[in-house]
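Reading a protein record of the kind used here takes little practice once its layout is understood. The fold follows as a row of integers, each naming the local backbone shape at the matching residue. With these conventions in mind, the following record can be read line by line:

_____
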Amino acid sequence: MTAVGVPERELERLRPRDVERYLRQRGWRPGGRVRYSARWEREWGGRPRRVLLPLDRGLADYADRMADLIGALAELEGRPPAAVHQDLTLSGLDVQYIRTMPRTPSGTIPVQAAVLAVTSARDLLMAAACDTVLDGPRLVHPRRKPQRAKDFVDSARFGPSSPGSYVFQVQVPLPEEARQEHL
């Protein structure tokens, strides 16, 4: 476990391009290179701030430098390092949260209700994909779904549940061009 409470192997898995995306999404600007790192800059609280993003995952201290970056971001953002780390891992994804309200203890769901929720999430994604592929919303979609819509649904995955009644996290990878447009 590192100083920021994130396991070293998790820090080693972070890709610099995903961290760059996170930084851009939050208003940071590239400020040049420093050896094996990229400097990122932003005004924060009326003061200029800088952070270093390690670029070479092969460096022996890559995880330590990534921990330094997460610690600095967590302090600036006023959030726990684990929350910053989670957001770094999700920067290339469109994440939707689906909350269920079963009459069970928080964080649990009956198996049949879970099956229905998962099936409904799949159907929701398929309907949205069909509307996009077929150029607009329709009351009824064709029985044979377009391959692009099926591919979209196949690219989605469930992430960890969140605290609450029972919250499903549905993650859809953003296409590379959409990732760039929204930065």
Q: What stands out?
A: The two ends are 32 Å apart (CA to CA). The helical segments are 8-13, 16-25, 62-77, 81-89, 111-133, 147-155, 176-181. Strands lie at 29-34, 37-44, 47-54, 93-100, 157-162, 166-173. The first helix runs from residue 8 to 13.
